[in-house]
Amino acid sequence: MGHEEIPALLAGAVPARAGRVLLDGADLTDAGIAERIALGVSMVPGNRQRDGVWLDVEAFENLAILPDTARSLLGVRHREREIGAATDAMTRFGVRPPDPLARVGQFSGGNQQKVVLAKWLDREPRVLLLDEPTQGIDAGAKYDVLQLVCAAATKGAAVVIASGDYEQLANICHRVLILRFGRITATLTGPDLTEATIAARAQAD
């Protein structure tokens, strides 16, 4: 198991072969994806174009998983409310342009990633799982995305990032775990949490 599988494992997309998954003492090991989402576990996948958004679908449809502000008590969808909720979310999370009727495939990679983040961060998750959150986006968008992630942590979310970007990990993480062949081989915190140390431990035999 590589680091990229950890978010999928914690989200319930990959079954655990051993051990348990606990959230505030509750055992989620056998819980499915939907149950974990309901309990506040959100995941931003590494391949956003394949797993995170529907490129040929309007932004508001991609964001329809937002909290039930756009739905009636019976679960009936209301297009205009969904469009309004999507516009609000896109504005708050910095999607450019904040056009809910635009197809997501028309957005830049960075703005596609912001759509994915908006979908999950608007739920104020208890746990936010991210697989290579800034992969394939420009420097400006990387900064924006990491600001959104840090804001979620400030609000109380437990944030787990799987990434091969050692500089990024050193700059924003409180603790870094190094995995090799599915096992934790090092835990870095405090003064040991530097880009050079992460690289050295990750590349050690």
TrEMBL record:
Pfam families: ABC_tran. Residues 9-135 form the ABC transporter domain. Keywords: ATP-binding, Nucleotide-binding, Repeat, Sugar transport, Transport. InterPro entries: ABC_carbohydrate_import_ATPase (IPR050107), ABC_transporter-like_ATP-bd (IPR003439), ABC_transporter-like_CS (IPR017871), P-loop_NTPase (IPR027417). One of its GO terms (molecular function) is ATP binding. This is ABC sugar transporter, ATP-binding component.
